[in-house]
Amino acid sequence: MKIEGGCHCGFVTYEAEADPERVAICNCTDCQNLSGSAFRTFLPVPDESFVFLSGEPTVYVKTGDSGGKREQTFCPKCGSPIYSTAIGAGPKDINIRIGTARQRDQLVPKGKIWTQSELPWLNQLGTIPGIEKQ
Hints:
By secondary structure, the chain is mainly beta. The chain is 5% helix and 37% strand.
């Protein structure tokens, strides 16, 4: 499916061809820290299918527990995370941050990784009372 998206302020926009069956949740502590949340939801797409339509993200390179380095990209104006990817030339996957995709309601996770770091209260989300709007 074709997806389009961008950052919160609209400076960085993109489009890509994506397989919605590849959507996953990462529970690693790096994703928790970099997202400011309990996990990060992502969609890997082939780098050749990903195109920036406007803007250019800022790149931060992080080193994982394995010693491997990964680019973390975000909007230089509003700070929205856009994607992560391996360092160097392709072919490789671009791991789009689901919250930036306009079609995010259609991109349902099919799996989870780094479950050893999953916060124990996540399985209770359905029991927590909610408020529809503020």
